[in-house]
Specification:
single chain; elongated; alpha+beta; four-stranded antiparallel sheet; Immunoglobulin-like; 2 helices
């Protein structure tokens, strides 16, 4: 229970303090209450965070996070190892970092799935773009 409360507080702080893009989950989804991805670049290191909150019927959540660099025609995934996580709660908070970035425009895209009984919902949260 303490972990769940800690995650909820962390997500709230993310919404208030960081440059984030929050999905309009309230209007579009039945199970997802809110989701967010955040990117902070310091020097050549990307610090990535993402969170999802499901409603009270949600029993678990999973997520896959992608650090992406803008190419000529599309976004390309930069992280070579899989950034995935899961939770047996209605919340999930993820943190990852990657050093050695070259100049360019970056974003974090996270795909979350929440589960409730036989139902599930998938939502995508994309951060504000950061430039090196």
């Amino acid at each position: 229970m303490k972990k769940a409360i800690s995650i909820i507080i962390s997500v709230t702080m993310l919404f208030l303090l960081c440059g984030t893009t929050v999905s309009a989950a309230q209007a579009r989804y039945a199970l997802v209450t809110a989701s967010t991805s955040t990117l902070n670049i310091v020097s050549d290191t990307a610090y990535c965070q993402a969170s999802v909150i499901g409603n009270s019927s949600v029993t678990s959540a999973s997520g896959t996070m992608y650090l992406e660099k803008k190419g000529i025609f599309s976004w390309k995934t930069v992280n070579t190892e899989s950034w995935t996580d899961s939770s047996s709660y209605n919340t999930l908070h993820m943190e990852n970092s990657l050093s050695g970035l070259s100049s360019g425009k970056y974003r974090v895209r996270t795909v979350f799935t929440v589960y409730s009984g036989n139902s599930s919902e998938t939502v995508e949260a994309i951060s504000i773009e950061e430039t090196i």
